Amino acid sequence: MTTTTLVTTTGWLPPRLRAALDRISGDLKHELSSLSTLDVLWVLYDQILRVHPDTADDPDRDRFLLSKGHGPAAYYAVLAAKGFVPVEWLDDFGGPDSRLGHHPDRTLIPGVEISSGSLGHGLPLAVGTVLGLRLRGEPTPAGARPRVYVLIGDAELDEGSNHEAIAYAGAVSRGSSIASAGSQPRLEAGTAGAVSRGSSIASAGSQPRLTAGTAGVAGLAELTAIVIDNGSSTHGWPGGIAARFAVNGWTTATVSGRDHQQLAAALRGHDGVHPHVVVAVTESKES
User: Fold this and answer.
1) Is 176 left (phi over 0), alpha (psi -120 to 50) or beta?
2) Which residue ranges form the domains of the chain, and what is each CATH number?
3) How much is the pLDDT for 205?
């Protein structure tokens, strides 16, 4: 399933978020990078994510991973507006004694899932997070598995690690799990050179192998990636960013990165079967 909707309106931002943004200064180098994520971050925390300050350590919470961590000002403003961190922390953003550095540090900032900023790491970490959550077995008491969201920049797709993660997430089945880990995994019972859609990693002494698992559901269905497209990618792809994910079995939606209604609909647009990507188009970095 692929949908495309492009609009140019700017979403309304609540006064408490605007007030938080007004307190942040000192990241002129990454200002455009920071602001390109603002509307997506607000929609995620205001309408989508099942997490709030009181459940930031709840094992059944949704996870949000900011891979695009080299411009975190908007992220910090949203966290403050939602009560994860005191708004006073924003006044010393990037200061020598501040918890709010120019790259987020998960050991210092409540609600932050990963330390990030080095490009190309978030999507592979999100894939691993989904697999780790699957090891817990049963869904939450509410009947739903925690969902993992990761926000990446289009320039990060120049990194090969992301393409490995895209291909893997689209191929591995919902029934996949890691039973034990050895030193030399090998592939069996699938298409040569690819992971079988109904596979799991099972124990085989020091050489675990991919064996038949629960078939019939393709891909890491609990995973949603959001790509901020502000024209930063060096190379690009025929048909656009969404086409790069679709070829590996992801469902896709391309929307304005400024329209909150379109963003919310796209973020809810996963089909429960495949991994999902939302391409959020914003102003060009060069404009």
Assistant:
1) beta
2) 2-176+210-281 (3.40.50.970)
3) 41
